[in-house]
Write a structure and sequence with these properties.
By secondary structure, the protein is an all-alpha fold. The chain contains one helix and no strands. It is 92% helix and 0% strand. Keywords: Coiled coil.
């Protein structure tokens, strides 16, 4: 091989190495950018996860309050029913104790 062809080959290899280095830098930049995006996405995911947990906690509290209110309503309805039964009994007793009119 001649000296000129070896020099040309060396120059060609240098250019290839420079192109590879440039490609590596670009790919490294893209990787860093994607890592930043991934980090942001993970942070948003964690925030959403925390918000969901808070929402679930609020839902649990509200469900417990609804259950308590339903129990109160059932108790009031039972009390009302008993009161109505007592009223009917009293009215019936009053009706039976009225003096009967003579015709």
């Amino acid at each position: 091989m001649s000296f000129i062809s070896q020099t040309a080959r060396i120059e060609k290899l240098k250019k290839s190495i420079a192109a590879f280095e440039l490609d590596i830098k670009e790919k490294s930049r893209i990787i860093e950018e994607r890592e930043r995006e991934l980090s942001k996405t993970q942070k948003l995911y964690e925030e959403q996860k925390e918000a969901k947990k808070k929402s679930d906690d609020v839902i649990t509290v509200l469900e417990a309050q609804i259950q308590d209110k339903n129990e109160q309503i059932r108790n009031y309805e039972l009390e009302l029913s008993e009161t109505e039964e007592l009223r009917k009994t009293i009215m019936s007793l009053m009706e039976s104790k009225k003096p009967k009119r003579k015709t």
